[in-house]
Amino acid sequence: MKHNLQTTFSTRQNMLSRDFEIYYYSNTYKNNHDYNVNSHTHNYYEFYFFLEGNVSMNIEGNCYSLKQGDVIVIPPNVRHHVLLHDVHIPYRRFVFWISVDYCNDLLKLSPDYVYLMQHSKITKHYIFHYDMIAFNSLQSKVFRLIEELHSNRFGKDAKITLCVNDLILHLNRSVYEMEHPKSQHEEQNLYQNLLLYIEDHLEETLSLDQLSDHFYVSKYHIAHVFKENLGLSVHQFITKKRLKMCQQAILSKANISEVYLMYGFKDYSSFFRAFKKEFGMSPKECKELAIQSEKNMK
Known about the structure:
Radius of gyration: 25 Å
Distance between the termini: 62 Å
Shape: elongated
Structural class: alpha+beta
Number of strands: 8
Number of helices: 11
């Protein structure tokens, strides 16, 4: 996984940068003594994204076993340390440090940027678990930031600021939505509205990002709603609806080469494979069947 972006592990626990630092660590150790980070505190916020390993996190004397998808928020002056339980398993994580001054600057822009930090300080709730869809999206934002830090492209500094702020806001939004789940009635309304919107826009470009922007909810929440109600991803549902519309058009003697483009398929080969998998016959066989059925009715 993007080995060239990994950081050589250091036991240093103080920030060198004024605003933020981010690291991707992947380590194996001969024994527990090789990982020598004692209980400590920071004067900055630490975000810790757990990827792999057999470890637990001790926070203020409470020990938490970690699993992939855990995101930990450590406010300033909160004592913590990691315990390695099996040194033979690779220990992988992202560590993201943000200064208090940087958070205060973001607070001036919007309190939404610091909801999570304040929430953890007040409630002493430090660990939040992301499902794999949400965690993979979080990882992509982390890697985008790290890649930009390693690049020499035009506009690098401006892009880094955008990536940092986007990552911080993303964390705040996702945790806020975990802590404030919608009611069952709201969920069903959202689900029904999503179905109607997709039905009305099958001929257009549809994506999770677009649906998220249109309905003002996170794409992870939309993905969850579909899985909960249909057992399908949004992409699977849209593909099935488009294939059904294509089938109906073909049965109505529409031109196959026009139909698949009309309903959002980019190329014939992918359309052909999806159609045959869905209906057990090729588009051409479907059309021939319709013609034969019509003849038999005469």
